[in-house]
Amino acid sequence: MQIIPVIDLKGGQVVHAAGGDRSRYQPVHHTSSLCDSSEINHVVACFLKLHPFQTFYIADLDAIRGDGNHDEAIDDLLSQYPNQEFWLDNGSSYQDLTTTTRRSNCKPVIGTESQRLPVSLKNADLILSLDFKHNRALGHPGWLESPQVWPETVVVMTLDLVGSNMGPDFEKLSKHCQDHPDKRFIAAGGVRDINDLTQLNAIGVAAVLLASALHNGSLDTKTLQKF
């Protein structure tokens, strides 16, 4: 099972995402035992000192809410780390992505919270994020009701569990893995420690997005090597 660090960007800094209330997110170095700065390149360097991660997930929270973006900083990061792959959610629609040129190590993420009517992504080279909050699907309900439009890789993002230290939504993830065995599901939200990772691996989750458990030291180098 693949472990993918998450980088949430807001106001020019990497922030600590907790509970899905983005207005309250603070610079990550205030609570991190891993980083002493919230500058994006520094955070990535700290993650890579911990473990040779091959993939990172970036959420440009300003772009998602339509209040600016971090395009320049992200482009610089993509250039600096050409051998790593970066999954990017910046609120773009599929229509926008079809006219956008991107670097080969950047893979776009379509998040249902910022989309309108569902479109077929079955053969698209991107990732779909099924977004949930307070046990409700965000965005047009057709995204959840139409698995035939999903691409191969699908994130199950439970926003209110992000940074919560409450554990993942095992029930929802297990159901998706059982109902759609042809998909590669990615867990996002609530992962605390190796016990959570072991249970997610057992139910068939292909990869996990996480940040808090890396910053607080719950998952160290020795533990990450097991996955």
Automatic annotation (TrEMBL):
Domain of life according to the entry: Bacteria
Entry's transmembrane regions: none
Coiled coil feature spans: none
Pathway: Amino-acid biosynthesis
Pfam families tied to this protein: His_biosynth
UniProt keywords, alphabetically: Amino-acid biosynthesis, Histidine biosynthesis
PANTHER family noted in UniProt: 1-(5-PHOSPHORIBOSYL)-5-[(5-PHOSPHORIBOSYLAMINO)METHYLIDENEAMINO] IMIDAZOLE-4-CARBOXAMIDE ISOMERASE
Similarity comment text for this entry: Belongs to the HisA/HisF family.
Protein name, per record: HisA/HisF-related TIM barrel protein
